[in-house]
Design brief:
alpha+beta, five-stranded mixed beta sheet, four-stranded antiparallel beta sheet, 17% helix
Length: 157
């Protein structure tokens, strides 16, 4: 094989590895217990969840039970909740939008995850309330506005 042939083969191999490496989505997974007992919001950042739920649910208390980073890939990724195991599988990733299959017994659903916002998934009863799995883009993934470019100016003295 010629030097050019080896270089092209290496380039193709590296491109395939890079393509496989991109087939993953990082999310923050929070497990939240919502109930009608008491009036606790722990941590205070869950007040936004309470406000979003106010029209459809009568929960008065929200408590975060756990939070962790999860990397969802084309293979099966598992997350243990207090009452069951939930699995995730990346179905498609295109233009920063992921289609993720979530097996949350007894249901299996494909959700669309973007770069912003949160997805709230009802996850059954536990400890006198209802568990909610909240999926959000992992920190550092959300788009941010870049500062305007600086123009070089000459300084004459």
């Amino acid at each position: 094989m010629t030097h050019l042939g080896r270089s092209l083969a290496l380039l193709v191999a590296l491109s395939a590895v890079a393509a496989r490496a991109e087939d993953k989505v990082g999310v923050t997974a929070e497990v939240v217990l919502a109930s009608t007992s008491g009036n606790v919001i722990d941590p205070p950042s869950l007040a936004s969840m309470k406000a979003k739920f106010a029209e459809k649910f009568k929960y008065t208390s929200f408590k975060r039970l756990s939070v962790q980073k999860v990397v969802i890939t084309k293979g099966v990724t598992e997350l243990q909740l207090p009452n069951k195991k939930v699995t995730f599988k990346l179905e498609e990733l295109k233009d920063g939008i992921a289609k993720v299959k979530v097996n949350n017994p007894p249901m299996e659903t494909v959700y669309t995850l973007g770069r912003e916002g949160s997805l709230y998934i009802a996850s059954g009863q536990h400890g006198g309330g209802d568990l909610w799995l909240v999926l959000s883009p992992a920190e550092g993934v959300r788009p941010r506005r870049l500062p305007p470019p600086h123009r070089a100016t000459s300084v004459e003295g």
